[in-house]
Specification:
Strand content: under 5%
Structural class: mainly alpha
Strand order of the largest sheet: 1-2-3
Shape: globular
Number of strands: 3
Length: about 350
Amino acid sequence: MRPDTPPADNADTVDHAAEAARLERTAGLYPEDAEALLLRAAAHLELSGDRPAATALYDRLLSSGDRLENHHLVRALKASNLWEYDHEAEARAIIEGIRTTAPRDPAPWVIIAESLESHDELESAHKTFTEAVDLLLRDVPEPPYATHPLLFGRHRVRRMLGAAHDAWDTLADTLHTAPVSLDELHDPKRVWSLGSDNPAELQAELVRLRAELGTYREALSRPFPVAVLHWPADELEELVTAYADLATEYPSHETHLATIEASLRELAASGTQNLGIVSGTLPSYEAFAASEGSSPSDAALLPQYATTLAARGRAVAWPPQKEAECWCGSEQPYETCHGTPTI
């Protein structure tokens, strides 16, 4: 599932060109969120059929240099788009560059592997999916939500290649929650059923398609993570100094960090997936409170602020990927920082 995919609601009635223009204007008003907004604008341009304009947006983002947070993702989306309007050589070069760089973010891997798959490059798609899961999931006790499409995509391609199940396929089966199994959903013979005159075969295919659609709807229903609000130390000090009523919410920065990790672990244990962390700033929070016609001292605004930041693409996935720095900003590996549960 592409992370920039526009919502499916009323998809047939959306004026994609107009929506892209609106998002570009919004990006001008909120430069700190320009990357997420322009990615969605590019997705609308692709859906409108104006792929050269989408490429121009990707190039605009890539030209921003160090300010770009998801450089590999933007390059992957550009490659996928280029291939769709006969720029295959350039697309292949970008894909190969991403594979060589081996990013720790699963999203660009999903994009380039699915691009290869959609152009019948099944062996290359399989190799790309496998490189990604070996890099990101080896020795990881529980695959993060964002990595699930890698396992599902690899399973799908292996079924099309006629490969026998391996340990990664078994893990994909375990993570899959739809009533129809992955083996059925990814059965290459399914396409033959669509041309069958046998009512029983057609009915069985309708059941499988409904299950698959349900999986896509579940993913689209949460286009951004369930996010917990994080205040860096200096921002938290300014916050409680300016709004003393919030000191009861945040007795200390150390307690705040421990509460974030504990809350996320509790959500994960309850079965909640697609978790993330958003970092707040005092000016941004004050602007949000003003937009809501409320006082920043109102603690009820805090979860709303976190949700708004997540919807604007500011969330960082939790838990961090293997060997990544801790989310708290300590610059220590997550595994030896907040990744070690307290007894």
